[in-house]
Write a sequence for this structure.
């Protein structure tokens, strides 16, 4: 195999064999008050084990994954031990991201919040898993606290990174710069042109930039209604409706740019209160061969909003292309501390940020996953936006934060975050899951045995998961317990098998059917009795699949590894 460019670290050559666990619903903690058929999942447990548990059912189905993992900064978080030895952090992230990649749909994407401590290493790690051609963006997101107070040094850190990767054929939605019509945006959208009237050519000259003709028109009998910020505050609902009804006639104010030299030539010619339009050929850009019409009013340069916005779900949204720097001003400031009515110092992401990501990446009904759910922001936003979701949280705040927050979303008591802008009134539901315990333990004599917490049904379902079968008991034939395909089946039993028992099964099988039987023990030579029946012992048949007895793969470390150094590389 040819050498390839990759990031290496201590322990990378020793892959983790994660045990696929069953997910068991805790009906007492599920909340299906608003949707008895909900598929939304809130999972409590180690996220690597949980991701492995999801893989067999959800591989290739998740449209958008957002994660906000511990940053390995060396500082202790309230809810995470974030002081990790560098290589172990990489190894555990590597295993998680490999599964996340398999869970993504072909048109899906992964968003990772990270800072500069591990961000550049994580970029190279993701390049290896997703390939470099599937890298989308490295976005700098300005944190809500931008003062840098408490930081040492000359340059203070006021931003975080968002690494974005696609699985294959990603197409972002048309909402490329989401900014709903709200008080803040009225500073730009503060006029409405009801009738642009008749235009008369008053001047024509070559543009200094490219020599192409610039045509200036003066409009007469036009109707312009000005809307002040105070008016907007007092008549918000009425004005929202006006903007919706007169969408095609709206325009927004531009800042005069020095790069378009001809604009300066017009400023002295304009009469205040008169509408002018300019047709010219841009010197650059995708539309450089097409005429663009700009509009002037009250000595301001304006352009038709319908060129840069559209109506979605009866709301007007702006579609300016996004840069890879997202400032606080781009996303309306939020009362972040009180969002979701849960406290999560220094770790909570604003709902507006997650909303932007989901608007870009998903549509109504798409599946969203967050395997570091934290305070529950991603699940809360996905719920309010009508997306299906899976949230995984390993700590106790799966109960105190995530569940509590989602319950308030469902009841309609959550009025913060994006609730007002999406007109959230409550509804929906989720199911709460716990990870099943490890399937195999060691007894007092060091022998591998099936965990006593597994009853017959749970054992059959767990073995089916390990073997790649779907647990689906057949009411007619007991041995058709789990299905691999239409002709292959798995049967799990704890009894000892003899020839008479196997013959009774064989007599009910079709000629083209194949059966695997997992059992405690069987008579000598019975495993060779029939060509279409394979007999295996449990737990021996499972021991090479993965490591058992592991309770978690937390991103923390107590004893760092001891590195062996070559004597010749050591100082005397």
């Amino acid at each position: 195999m040819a050498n390839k460019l990759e990031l290496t670290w201590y322990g990378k050559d020793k892959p983790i064999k994660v045990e696929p666990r069953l997910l068991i619903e805790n009906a007492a903690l599920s909340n299906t008050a608003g949707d008895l058929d909900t598929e939304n999942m809130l999972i409590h447990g180690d996220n690597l084990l949980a991701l492995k548990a999801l893989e067999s059912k959800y591989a290739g189905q998740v449209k958008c994954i957002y994660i906000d993992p511990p940053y390995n900064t060396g500082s202790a978080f309230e809810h995470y031990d974030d002081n990790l030895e560098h290589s172990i952090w990489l190894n555990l992230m590597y295993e998680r991201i490999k599964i996340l990649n398999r869970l993504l749909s072909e048109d899906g994407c992964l968003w990772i919040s990270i800072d500069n401590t591990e961000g550049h290493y994580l970029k190279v790690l993701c390049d290896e898993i997703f390939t470099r051609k599937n890298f989308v963006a490295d976005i700098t997101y300005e944190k809500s606290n931008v003062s840098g107070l408490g930081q040492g040094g000359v340059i203070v850190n006021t931003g975080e990174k968002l690494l974005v990767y696609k699985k294959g054929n990603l197409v972002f939605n048309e909402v490329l710069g989401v900014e709903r019509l709200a008080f803040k945006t009225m500073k730009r959208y503060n006029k409405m042109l009801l009738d642009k009237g008749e235009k008369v050519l008053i001047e024509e000259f070559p543009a200094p930039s490219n020599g192409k003709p610039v045509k200036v028109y003066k409009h007469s009998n036009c109707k312009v209604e000005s809307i002040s910020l105070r008016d907007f505050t007092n008549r918000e609902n009425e004005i929202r409706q006006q903007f919706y009804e007169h969408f095609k006639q709206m325009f927004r104010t531009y800042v005069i740019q020095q790069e378009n030299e001809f604009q300066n030539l017009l400023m002295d010619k304009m009469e205040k209160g008169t509408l002018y339009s300019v047709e010219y050929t841009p010197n650059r850009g995708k539309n450089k061969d097409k005429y663009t019409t700009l509009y002037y009013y009250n000595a301001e340069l304006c352009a038709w909003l319908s060129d840069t916005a559209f109506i979605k779900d009866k709301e007007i949204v702006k579609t300016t292309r996004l840069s890879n720097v997202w400032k606080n001003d781009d996303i309306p400031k939020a009362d972040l501390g009180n969002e979701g009515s849960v406290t999560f110092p220094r770790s909570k992401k604003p709902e507006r940020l997650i909303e932007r990501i989901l608007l870009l990446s998903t549509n109504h009904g798409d599946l969203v996953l967050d395997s570091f759910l934290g305070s529950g922001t991603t699940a809360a936003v996905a719920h309010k936006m009508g997306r299906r979701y899976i949230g995984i949280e390993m700590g106790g705040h799966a109960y105190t934060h995530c569940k509590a927050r989602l319950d308030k979303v469902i009841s309609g008591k959550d009025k913060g975050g994006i609730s007002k802008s999406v007109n959230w009134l409550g509804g929906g539901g989720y199911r709460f899951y716990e990870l099943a315990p490890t399937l195999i333990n060691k007894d007092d004599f060091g022998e591998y045995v099936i965990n006593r917490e597994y009853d017959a049904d749970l054992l059959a379902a767990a073995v089916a998961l390990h073997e790649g079968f779907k647990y689906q008991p057949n009411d007619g034939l007991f041995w058709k317990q789990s299905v691999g395909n239409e002709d292959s089946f798995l049967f799990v039993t704890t009894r000892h098998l003899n020839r008479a028992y196997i013959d009774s099964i064989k007599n009910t099988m079709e000629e083209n059917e194949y059966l695997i039987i997992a059992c405690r023990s069987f008579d000598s030579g019975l495993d060779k009795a029939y060509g279409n029946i394979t007999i295996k012992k449990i737990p021996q048949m499972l021991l090479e699949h993965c490591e058992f007895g592991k309770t978690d793969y937390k991103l923390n470390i107590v004893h760092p590894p001891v590195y062996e150094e070559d004597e010749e590389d050591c100082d005397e």
User: Anything to note?
Assistant: The chain has three domains: 23-147+156-174+323-435, 184-318, 440-542. Confidence is low (pLDDT under 50) at residues 176-189, 252-262, 555-572.
